[in-house]
Amino acid sequence: MSQWSQVQQLEIKFLEQVDQFYDDNFPMEIRHLLAQWIESQDWEAASNNEAMATILLQNLLIQVDEQLDRVSQEKNLLLIHNLKRIRKLLQGKYHGNPMHIAVIISNCLREERRILAAASMPVQGPLEKSLQNSVVSERQRNVEHKVSAIKNSAQMTDQDVKYLEDLQEEFDFRYKTIQSLEQSDKNSVLIKQEMLALQAMLNTLDYKRKEVLGKIGRVIHEIDMLMSNMLTEELLDWKRRQQIACIGGPLHGGLDQLQNCFTLLAESLFQVRRQLEKLDELLTRLTYDGDPIPVQRPQLLEKVNFLLYNLFRNSFVVERQPCMPTHPQRPMVLKTLIQFTVKLRLLIKLPELNYQIRVKATIDKNVSTVSNRRFVLCGTHVKAMNMDESANGSLSVEFRHLQPKEMKSSAGSKGNEGPHMVTEELHSISFETQVCLYGLTINLETSSLPVVMISNVSQLPNAWASIIWYNLSTNDPQNLSFFNNPPAATLSQLLEVLSWQFSSYVGRGLNSEQLNMLAEKLMGQQVSYNDYQLSWAKFCKEHLPGKSFTFWVWLEAILDLIKKHILPLWIDGYIMGFVSKEKERILLKDKTPGTFLLRFSESNLGGITFTWVDQLENGDVTFHSVEPYNKGRLSALPFADILRDYKVIMADNVPENPLKYLYPDIPKDKAFGKHYSCQPNEVSKPSDGGGKGYVPSVFIPVSKILNDSTDPHSPSDLLPMSPSVYAVLREHLSPTVIETAV
């Protein structure tokens, strides 16, 4: 079943999450119509390879054309119209930057896998549950409602100012008319009546001026209250969701809604500012004793400018955190002399600012807060924000060619740093710009989340562990001294994040049983771990009991093994993986002989093994585990083929495959058949060898189990065969297999 087919079977609450990340950047119609083709392409690799991305974009457009031909024959007018529009959109948007669509599709597929994994979990984790809090959703709706009400109030006040202006013009005309009369005419009864009418108009003007100033004051107060409370909380929540998304959590959204709120508030404040300027014009033409404008206007204008300063400062955000294109799922880990990308957005989207704001990027601006290692940024570090490059037309800028370079003056300190020192040092990428608009000049600054600088890819796993721990443990965006005294983390939240590592990196998260095994490995046998606090040292620095590696190094090696060698089997859910030897025997002991399961080695880094249950002649149950397969051995032979072809020699018996059923009772070929590279009977005959005179060869995994073994459970009994064992094998294999075996 395709991934898209699985997505369509999800409950409505999960489908709503899927709906959030499909838009004009990558329309859902294309995802639906080209589901199998899209899933068969390597979009992640293309996101780092422009030539590959170009080919994939061309092929995508060809696929869309083929769908157009099909629906044209079916005379589906609506679909024809939509596909033509989508094709034009895709070609226009990504023709100059094909890697962008590769990144978008890769992210969409990864997020689908994460949601599928979350849907398979019996309960949501504590972090994800907090991000989807109904109180937060209600606050979002309240903010949007209040912003809309403020905008309406500002527009209504515009009408009041216009009425006041018209009233004052009438007053000016009538007053000047009287002033132009001869003195004798001014004493007439009619003129006296007119003077009384003008006094009434002046009273009305005074009342209206006070009324308009009152309304302006209320609009300013409402904006102030909204910015101080709900809008600030919304922005902080978005930043927290971004932190969680960076370490594999749910894809964060809501920035477009925030942009709409910020923009409407800015427009309202500028509208109020114009109203105050208009009142100043009216003041120059007419003033009187007790006039409220000269008293109240300066205070109101000062408050408006103050709010505009704060609104702009809060609106300058890092939309996409620093990330190397070569490691899209490891953001905030940067390698010296390797390019990284980072994207910023101004949430106040005003056409007047297009190409008018130049942003400068620097690193470790406040050098006193970081280590004695110093870096500079090479590449284009000053760019203008614009609305043309971003797919949704936001006012943004993306730096794509920045490279961190370590300054030579700090080289002498490297020798004094331990293996964890570099990966626990936090640095900051800072950005600054200036906005000049309508007589205001506002300096803006923002910073990325803390990043870790590495000089060798071997440091990446520990650096990523630091990024995980920081963003799990704190919502402080700039605590560069965090690892001077790193706090403990709640184990239940850490396990949730570890599951995200699997769902985001290898397409399938961990279930509760797998997480329980990891919990036991981290803290030993405990009844409950919901409130258990785990230290940073135990997670990443201290070796596991009796081992020469840490928990995190062990887990990272498993992720790497899955990604490179057994990914399809993992995604299908056929690898139990995280199960202890004790639990393994409990699961298998009552099963049919030949039932087996797959688990990751606890003693070897990046190893996977299988254990099967057998029954002796006396009825006793016995278990056999094969020596773990590592990436070296799996590079030579696909794991599915190993399971298919595996043979065991017991004493002088004919070699046979002991693996019959995948736990609990799935026939082996049903589980793994689609992943076999070829069927045994499809191996080339000698005559197919290209006339070279050689017999084509295949690898056959074989183990020998001795009758006199004192410990039949030991993996050492199941090492690959020796030459003498191989000779026995040749005596017992069928001629067809002998013909193709070495």
From TrEMBL:
GO terms for molecular function: DNA binding; DNA-binding transcription factor activity, RNA polymerase II-specific. The keyword Cell cycle does not apply. One of its GO terms (biological process) is type I interferon-mediated signaling pathway. Keywords: Acetylation, Activator, ADP-ribosylation, Coiled coil, Cytoplasm, DNA-binding, Isopeptide bond, Methylation, Nucleus, Phosphoprotein, SH2 domain, Transcription, Transcription regulation, Ubl conjugation. InterPro entries: p53-like_TF_DNA-bd_sf (IPR008967), SH2 (IPR000980), SH2_dom_sf (IPR036860), STAT (IPR001217), STAT4_CC (IPR046991), STAT4_DBD (IPR029839), STAT4_SH2 (IPR035856), STAT_linker (IPR048988). It is found in: Cytoplasm; Nucleus. One of its GO terms (cellular component) is nucleoplasm. Pfam families: SH2, STAT_alpha, STAT_bind, STAT_int, STAT_linker. Its main location: cytoplasm. Residues 570-672 form the SH2 domain. Belongs to the transcription factor STAT family. This is Signal transducer and activator of transcription.
